[in-house]
Write a structure and sequence with these properties.
The complex is a heterodimer of chains A (329) and B (168). Chain A is an alpha+beta fold and 329 residues long. Chain A has 12 helices and 12 strands. Chain B has a 5-stranded mixed β-sheet, sandwiched between helices. The chains are: A alpha+beta (329), B alpha+beta (168). Chains A and B meet through helix 2, helix 3, helix 4, helix 5 and helix 6 of A and strand 4, helix 4 and helix 5 of B. The structure holds flavin-adenine dinucleotide, iron/sulfur cluster and FE2/S2 (inorganic) cluster (2 copies).
């Protein structure tokens, strides 16, 4: 690991100013991703600004019936919160299916959103990677492809975003609040992360120095039931091959409302808007669910090494919708 | 860059100067001579370095010491208070290890896990996410302990060793 200076800011504005002024500075939260990447020398900041005490570690009620989650809330506190468990079960389940008990006790909400891809070439400084070293090439195109994207990828990068929490937040229409050099801004979670296009080095739309201060959840939708389903190579403590976050509301045998997001398939949490459009108002049946999943995945462009993800994503979507339908009966 | 920090480890206060790159795991093992937590992978993937930090289980290999100034840390060695901790006795009674390298991490992790269950924290296999009472059956124990790998695969004895203490 390269030497670095460690600082704690007392105010958000001071932290933002330091980051804007010092190009080699980075924010540190739980450290569970950043410290690892620094040890691998994938990231080599010269200054770390510890932001854990700078952002809130509380979960608060919003006037509209939603919740505000401070950026420093740990994964375990968020997953265990009774309001989250009862009103947004999909979020608690997504968090609990990620990492391990020890990691969730350190990892924060802000850090989770901004964790980097687990692409093995990104993590290995001896191999070409456009995300780590722009212009060096993408090793995954001719290499290991099991964990790579099937939707929204580009010839420059086929990596996936590894967060489970972000997939649930995408389905819940969460909003990220950000403090920057100029003003605060609010970014819908589905617009926080980018597709790789020709600039895979940029994971998100955040500008240099912008600090995530929290995440806001809108009130839970009516009678919607929600669930997170994660498929992976071992039963626990592994990243998703494919995951699905679904909230479903059925009335008189029809889909009144549905929200679906997919993980493990793209450079960002993938909100399945096409599938949702097919389903809204349609009969709540296996056939509709199959049609919706097929419509969403018609845009899939798998690589030879991850073609299995297309049927896996389709089946996981359909079976999760069927489970929720069964429960609603 | 060096910084002076204070750490309370297994009940004893320490004041030491560390390079900012030092993790809690390295501070304990290399600087304070506490080799109870082990370095398995140094990447957060095995759980051998598990510590209790303010009563919660965490990974010492991914926590920078300077970010945890004044922390209260407990290792497996510190769980034994004059006599062995019930989890330590149960691991011996159940033969829940072979080489023993993962064992201090398993035991600290189990101690943290039992407290989480007492506080009603759910897990990925909990049937009802809203339920406040946790029943630690074998499936729950295996899921909640999945952050601790055992290269000798003593899992078949680790789960019953923890279950015995959990069901007391
Ligand atoms: C072995 C292992 C297995 C894992 N498995 C899973 C899994 O299955 N699913 C999953 O979702 N995750 C998994 N994780 C990843 C884990 O969830 C992340 O490492 C964690 O959420 C990062 O949070 P942190 O607070 O530790 O972030 P840090 O490591 O401190 O920071 C991560 C990044 O976010 C930036 N940052 C942090 N806070 C802010 C802020 N407030 N504003 C702006 N920037 C900020 C940092 O500069 C850094 O770039 C795993 C990790 C490990 C090591
Ligand atoms: S997929 Fe993206 S992260 Fe992986 S090697 Fe290619 S450019 Fe790098
Ligand atoms: S040494 Fe820390 S998790 Fe392996
Ligand atoms: S007893 Fe050998 S690694 Fe667990």
């Amino acid at each position: 690991m390269r030497p670095f200076r460690y600082e704690r800011a007392d105010e958000v504005s001071a932290a933002v100013t330091t980051l804007v002024r010092e190009p080699e500075a980075a924010y540190l939260a739980g450290g569970t991703n950043l410290v690892d990447l620094m040890r691998l020398e994938v990231m080599t900041p010269e200054v770390l600004i510890d932001v854990r005490r700078l952002t809130s570690d509380r979960i608060e009620e919003l006037p509209d019936g939603g919740l505000r989650i401070g950026a420093a809330v740990t994964g375990s506190d968020l997953a265990a919160d009774l309001r989250v468990r009862r009103r947004y079960p999909v979020l608690s389940q997504a968090l609990l299916s990620g990492a391990s008990g020890q990691l969730r006790n350190l990892a924060t909400t802000g850090g989770n959103l901004l964790q980097r891809t687990r692409c093995p070439y990104f993590q290995n400084v001896t191999t070409p990677c456009n995300k780590r070293a722009p212009g060096s090439g993408c090793s995954a195109l001719e290499g290991y492809q099991r964990d790579m994207a099937i939707l929204g990828a580009s010839p420059a990068c086929v990596a996936t975003h590894p967060s489970d929490m972000a997939v649930a937040l995408a389905a819940l229409d969460a909003v990220v609040t950000v403090a920057g050099p100029d003003a605060e801004r609010r970014i819908p979670l589905t617009e926080l992360h980018r597709l790789p296009d020709t600039t895979p080095e940029r994971d998100t739309v955040l500008e240099r120095g912008e600090l995530i201060t929290g995440v806001e959840l809108p009130p839970p939708h009516g009678a919607a039931r929600s669930r997170y389903r994660k498929v992976r190579d071992r039963a626990s403590y592994a990243f998703a091959l494919v995951s699905v976050a679904v909230a479903l509301e059925v009335a008189d045998g029809s889909v009144r409302d549905v929200r679906i997001a997919l993980g493990g398939v793209a450079h960002k949490p993938w909100r399945a808007a096409t599938a949702e459009a097919v389903l809204r108002g349609a009969p709540a049946t296996r056939e509709s669910f199959m049609d919706a999943a097929a419509a969403e995945l018609s845009a899939a462009r798998p690589l030879p090494g991850n073609a299995f993800k297309v049927p896996l994503a389709r089946n996981t979507m359909v079976s999760t919708l069927l489970e929720l339908l069964e429960e609603a009966r | 860059m060096d910084l002076e920090i204070e750490l309370r480890v297994d009940g004893t206060e320490h004041r030491l100067t560390v390079d900012t790159r030092t993790t809690l795991l390295d501070a304990l093992r290399e600087r304070l001579g506490n080799t109870s937590p082990k370095k398995g992978c140094d990447h957060g993937q095995c759980g051998a370095c598990t510590l209790l930090l303010g009563g919660r289980r965490i990974l010492g290999c991914l926590a920078l010491a300077v970010a945890h100034q004044g922390a209260d840390i407990v290792t497996s060695a510190g769980l034994a208070d004059g006599e062995l901790h019930p989890l330590q006795r149960s691991f011996i009674a159940h033969d829940a290890f072979q080489c023993g390298y993962c064992t201090p991490g398993q035991i600290v992790s189990a101690a943290g896990m039992l407290r989480e269950a007492r506080e009603g924290w759910p897990s990925a296999v909990s049937k009802d996410p809203g339920a406040v009472d946790v029943v630690l059956d074998d499936e729950e124990i295996a899921e909640r302990m999945s952050g601790n790998l055992c290269r000798c695969a003593a899992y078949a004895n680790i789960v019953p060793a923890i279950a015995e203490v959990a069901h007391r």
